[in-house]
User: Fold this.
Amino acid sequence: MGCAISGLAAKAEFGERTTEDAAAAAHPREDQIQMIKESWKVIRDDIAKVGIIMFVRLFETHPECKDVFFLFRDVEDLERLRSSRELRAHGLRVMSFIEKSVARLDQLERLEALALELGKSHYHYNAPPKYYSYVGAEFICAVQPILKERWTPELEEAWKTLFQYVTTLMKRGYLEESNRQRQLALSPKERPDKRNTAL
Assistant:
């Protein structure tokens, strides 16, 4: 269906990155930040619509993602999904995160903290990092028709850069929380000794 980057984008264009690659995930350049902010002013007027389109497309192109969402796991009818209040609410939460990310583009420490926390919370939702990059690809596909002639290859690259940056941080947050939970699960004898043994 529709978008040229859908389906392939997660691996080829958005890149599968690990924590070692976190430093390699560059944040958007200043010119990209301005393009993102300008385009967001238009997208913002249709955030509920974009959120629904994004997740319906996500479930169409990557049906395995539905397993993470217990409310949608067994829903096969895409029309039912389009009219789902729960899907609308989740789409709005994701769009709210994107809006906060756009607002923090000039405050990278705050953006990093936001994305790390989201990654940590996704650990508790059992939403593994392999799915994060799919959302960026579907967001781009959903906003192209809204932006019409404003959509350019440069703007697409700017949004891709933002999503690569944010998903890399989310993956790092997920892994940090996974490691923390693993440490908590160890008995006190199995935990690494945190005392300073330096002389």
